[in-house]
Amino acid sequence: MEVPDCLYSEKGLMFLGDIIRESKKLHPSTERCIRLDVARILVVVNLEKPLPSKIDLSDEQETLISVSYLCLPSRCQTCQA
């Protein structure tokens, strides 16, 4: 995620993760603010539902945060489980 400075804190990042589904923890490099251009959050998701590619924060500046997903488990092409 490319995150605005005002949300680049544990509380702010967990808030963003909870918008996607259920935040569990921050990646160690995100916790230590090693890469400020990217925030990594472990989020539990339901693979049977679509995953958002953006988070739209309704504020005066209309902030859109792009989201990408790493390490998603593969699904069976036959049964979709």
Task: Please tell me about this protein's structure.
The chain is an alpha+beta fold and 81 residues long. It has one domain (5-66). Helices cover 19% and strands 21% of the residues. It is built from two helices and four strands; from the N terminus they run αβαβββ. It has helices at 10-20, 28-31; strands at 22-26, 41-44, 54-57, 63-66. The chain has a two-stranded antiparallel sheet with strand order 1-2. The chain has a two-stranded antiparallel sheet with strand order 3-4. Strand 3 and strand 4 (63-66) form a beta hairpin. The two termini are 27 Å apart. The model has no long low-confidence stretch (mean pLDDT 86). InterPro entries: At4g02000-like (IPR040256).
Along the chain, the helix and strand elements come as: HEHEEE
Low-pLDDT residue spans: none
The spatial strand order of the largest sheet comes to 1-2
Query: Could you tell me how far the N terminus lies from the C terminus, measured between alpha carbons in angstroms?
Result: 27 Å
Radius of gyration: 14 Å
Strand content: 15-25%
H/I helix tally: 2
Strand elements, count:
4
Provide tags for this entry:
single chain, 81 residues, two-stranded antiparallel sheet, two-stranded antiparallel ribbon, 2 helices, globular
